[in-house]
């Protein structure tokens, strides 16, 4: 084996330490064509939201439009979108990958970045009856200062499965 192959293999191993599989939990939104009224109104987003949240909302709107939903001021459903992030060492009751952070660190002991765990939640509630049409979450770990690269994949998982 030559030195170039060894270096390339080592770099691939290091890059792999910062990736995680995307997971989703919960019901997917049904196709809009199958609903009597596939309109929705966006729930207010907190005023102190950052660009990542605004980006998530925009991507979710586009994905729902592709699925047959329309946004209107008095839509039948209320759309809720949330984006949270935390250090992956923070343990939660239901880890998104079914694997603890400690186990993940043993598997990938060399990390050249500070990964963050991102969780995108999307749900729709009937504004008249309060019935939940769907609610789910997509989660992943990602290295970098923002979730911009992983967010489109998370939205696809949350809306399309």
Automatic annotation (TrEMBL):
Domain of life of the native organism: Bacteria
Name this polypeptide is given: DUF4136 domain-containing protein
Organism: Sphingomonas psychrotolerans
């Amino acid at each position: 084996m030559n030195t170039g192959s060894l270096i390339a293999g080592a770099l691939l191993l290091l890059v792999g330490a910062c990736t995680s599989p995307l997971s989703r939990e919960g019901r997917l939104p049904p196709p809009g064509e199958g609903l009597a009224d596939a309109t929705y109104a966006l729930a207010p987003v907190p005023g102190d939201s950052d660009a990542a949240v605004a980006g998530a909302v925009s991507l979710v709107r586009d994905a729902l439009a592709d699925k047959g939903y329309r946004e209107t001021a008095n839509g039948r459903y209320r759309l809720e979108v949330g984006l949270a992030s935390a250090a992956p060492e923070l343990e939660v009751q239901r880890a998104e990958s079914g694997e603890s952070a400690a186990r993940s660190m043993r598997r990938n002991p060399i990390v050249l970045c500070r990964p963050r765990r991102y969780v995108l939640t999307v749900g729709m509630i009937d504004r008249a009856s309060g019935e939940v049409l769907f609610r789910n979450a997509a989660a992943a770990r990602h290295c970098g200062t923002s979730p911009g690269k992983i967010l489109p994949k998370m939205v696809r998982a949350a809306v399309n499965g």
